[in-house]
Design a protein that fits this description.
3 strands, single chain, mainly alpha, three-stranded antiparallel sheet, about 160 residues, 6 helices, Arc Repressor Mutant, subunit A, about 60% helix, globular
Length: about 160
């Protein structure tokens, strides 16, 4: 059986967006299983827990911008963390239509338990890379994210923490 050459020489395995997606799915799947099995936290809840631990009290809009998750995903994750007593919601001081989410002491304790595991997974994933390669990889990923945002018409660029 003969193969028809891909139009324009496109080969999926060499196509950067595909490779990024496959790598992201592999890493996310590995981490998702660990957090779900051990802590009962799907990835959106884990991200929300971490961002609240890092940044303190945030509005849902701030969380959407910080995590690059959509509003519905953030809302569902927040609802579950509130239900589990891991997060608390308070009125926003300056905007009565908005609420501020923050971690409860139980949420902070869970984050303190998860953080070393997350760092261990990261260390295992980059173990075969030299420190300068890790730095370069992070810089290149931030640049790709910025370029994608610009192509999509997003002038904001990458979320805080991705630019060195």
């Amino acid at each position: 059986m003969s193969r028809v050459p891909a139009a324009g020489g496109l080969r999926l395995d060499a196509y950067l967006p595909y490779r990024l997606s496959v790598a992201s799915n592999a890493v996310s799947g590995l981490i998702a299983r660990a957090y779900q099995d051990r802590f009962g936290l799907p990835i959106p809840q884990w991200r929300l827990l971490c961002v609240l631990a890092e940044d303190g009290g945030l509005t849902q809009g701030q969380i959407v911008a910080r995590t690059v998750m959509d509003k519905v995903t953030v809302s569902r994750a927040a609802h579950e963390l509130l239900k589990r007593g891991l997060a608390a919601r308070a009125e926003h001081q300056a905007d009565g239509r908005s609420h501020v989410l923050s971690l409860t002491p139980e949420g902070a304790r869970l984050h303190a338990e998860i953080a070393p595991l997350a760092l261990a997974y990261e260390a295992a994933l980059i173990a075969g890379l030299a420190p300068e390669e890790v730095t370069l990889l992070k810089r290149l990923l931030a640049r790709l994210q910025t370029a994608a945002g610009q192509l999509a018409g997003d002038a904001d660029g990458p979320p805080v923490g991705l630019v060195e």
